[in-house]
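Support case: user asked for a sample of complex input and structure output to validate their parser. Sending the pair below.
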Amino acid sequence: MKIQEFTKDVEKNVGRCAALSEKAQKKLNAIVTFIDHSEQIEAVKKMDPSLPLYGVPIAIKDNFNTKGIRTTASSRILDNYVPIYDATVIKKLKDAGAILFAKTSMDELGMGGTNLNAYTGKVNNPYDVSRISGGSSGGSAALVAEGVVPVAMGTDTGDSIRKPAAYCGVVGFKPTYGRISRYGVIPYASSLDHVGFFTTCIEDAARMLEVCAGRDDHDMTSSYEKVEEYEKNLNSDIRGKKIAILENVMNSIEDQRIVDNFNEVILKLEKRGAIVERVSMDETLLQTLLPVYLIIANAEACANHSNLDGVRFGMREDGNDLEEIMINSRTKGFSSAVRKRFVLGSYSLFVENQEKLFRKAQKVRRVIVDEYRKILEKYDCVIASAAPTIAPHPEDSVGEKMSDTYLVAENFMILGNMSGYPSLTLPSGFVEGLPIGINVTAKAFDEQNLLNICKAIEEETGLENHTAGGSYEL
Amino acid sequence: MNFETIIGIEIHCELKTHTKMFSQGPVSFGESANSCVNEIDLGMPGTLPCLNKHAVELALRACMGTHCDIDPLVKFDRKNYYYSDLPKGFQITQQFHPIGKNGYIEISTETGTKKIRLNRIHMEEDTAKQFHTNFGTLIDFNRAGTPLIEIVSEPDIRSGKEAAAYVEELRNMLYYLGVSDCRMEEGSMRCDVNISLRPEGSEIFGTKTEIKNLNSISNVQKAVDYEVERQTRLLLSGEKVEQETRRFDEATKTTVLMRKKEGNVDYKFFPEPNIFPIQLDEAWIEQIRATQPQLPSQRKEKYMQEYGLSEYDANTLTQTKELSDFYDEVVKHTKEYKLASNWCMVELMAVLNKENISFDDNPCSPVYLAEMIEMVSKGEISSKQAKVVFEEIMKGKDPKKVVEEKGMKQISDPNEILKLVTQVLDANAQAILDFKNGKGRAAGALVGQVMKLSKGQANPKLANQILNEELKKR
């Protein structure tokens, strides 16, 4: 469903999505909290109908603070947390006329890539409910893929928007670090966290970027860079654009069907006049992506989540003294997967380990980003298949095999988080009836160029506005 | 055996800003509990820090006043620990790159002046205030996030007297610089003293104890004196000084054990990812330097050297910053430095003290006072009349109007006065005779009559002079 398909009849829009969502919830388990829309509808009806998101229902990943609406980040410890404030981007959506439709499931606190580690349980893939949606923004990806809502907000720390977008067959866009304010978004790892969204087409992604982007004085890392008219300027003429295929990724993919699909798309782009070349990065460097990412992310995360102690908000467990209350609340409040990450993060920050783990990881991050930047200095974008497989079954998704496929093709999108460069995944076809995607990454703040190239790809794949839940149309 | 006392002092000083270090929450004292907080101060999930520029300015002023090397690249770090007064579970501080390093201040004691070196000045945020009661611990988050600087001395202090002089000098300086209101009793300046003893001539430091939270300068001295005595006693009797944290007990004037130090806590310091390093503008630093308020010693020197005031006057005027500031305002409008000093020190202070008015509510305009002083010095009004005018100035009235309304113009025309003198002398033959017979007092009585005849408006000096001249002629 596209934004433009929505009428200016707010009640009708919301009613349509609400009816869909009830059925979809049974199928997907994507929603953590349903929202009562009556007040929002009344408020929006008083607004200017020409607003870019007037009356458009938008699903929100459950780590965005929504004033007065329960926000759990899919963690038990926040099961009763009702924020007293709106995240900046939530304010912007409201100001643009959007209706906050529902809060969606995620891997607990953003930690995970499967959405299996959510307090409300697994989110099912709309194309095959036995398979995973991917994560951590799995609920948002699934709802858009199912056609329940046209847009859903997500966050991306490793590939948490772009991987589920690939598995679910939707557009998943993480703009440049600092392009969208992080204020009010429950963090995972501050230096890697990005706010982004899912849509069914590039046009909607451009409109969403225009609404969400911009400097926010509440987020010192947000940029003063000018926000452009991305939707109006959308132009799929890519003649002369220089596109770099990241060879390491394509070489490590075992599923030939995915490689073939990718190559087909590339041929079409060349026909359109794009200059496509193959580039490769130091393989060892790419193999360090995951460990370096985990060290930095977990270290930042263990500090970021120290406020979740059961004392001022959240679920509190009893204890004889303060320390016991904190220990009990945190032990019961977090899943073992999250506690494992805290332990690892804490370990890498200890005085005796910090230099050889955390600081070293930061240095390697700079080396990786330097090499990545050198490629993008010569090209408009870097392109590769977004995932080496179709969405797996749960039992096939958790093993951390140290293979090339795993280390490189499965995790290369971390490059976008380490560098902060804008990165977008869009659907490129189907294998066994399940969607596969392509990932495109451009220079910092070069979102317009990135969207233009992706628009061209979308025109070639014909997958604009493709959703799984056709049978639900009212 | 004789011991040498080694003292180092850490001072936490609240900066005089309107809002908190990293949030727009108001800085307050004595407001009702938890009324000056927002989501950031409470460490709610998703909040981000935003650095207070005014706090950086005040920290720079402190660095400039204490001759510190300023690091123009401002960086912050996280200090991680769990406690109920620390809402985020970490404190944002400057562990690795303090804003100021390698400074010094000069203190004076009976034995002369001495340089005390400063190791560092760094910025950080305050914690919440806890109240331990019989029915549990209460937390007031109003103080949470208040901007602080921590000033760490080198171990250059050798006695209780020096310790007290050091704290007093710093307090005076920071207060004059407008950095802090330095109210030790209210906790806006808090003092921790580290003390160890070593045999005279030894190069190795002994085991130190730390006395926490001394709340007055006299207690600094008392606590040090007691602690030196206690440690001396221990060492002389062959016992060991334990590394521990102690507090000063007002009632018994002794130091009491709070807790033993069990190894060093690992705070897992690492750079704050939500605040990028900030390069301070050199011009901004210079502008702050150029507008640095003068310190008491500089003001005293100016008063004595430039204005020719006595040391006593200079000391009195600089006893408080407010009086000194007021005096500086007055002498912007008159060059009668001595007169101005008298009026400020004596008449003004008398009224303010009597009426219990603070300088914040001082109704006296420095410009009006200066105008009145000019009138006195030009002989336009008498000192006696000036007192009446001053009363009116304290009611906010313009001295020129007061003089006009009350018809107070002093008669300073010699011809006018001669007329009055002649009139009096003609009517008092007996008094003239008495004067000629050696009764000096008779002249005084005659002047009094002249003044009476002029309704107090004759210039007394002139009246006296002319009368004496005329007497000699008769």
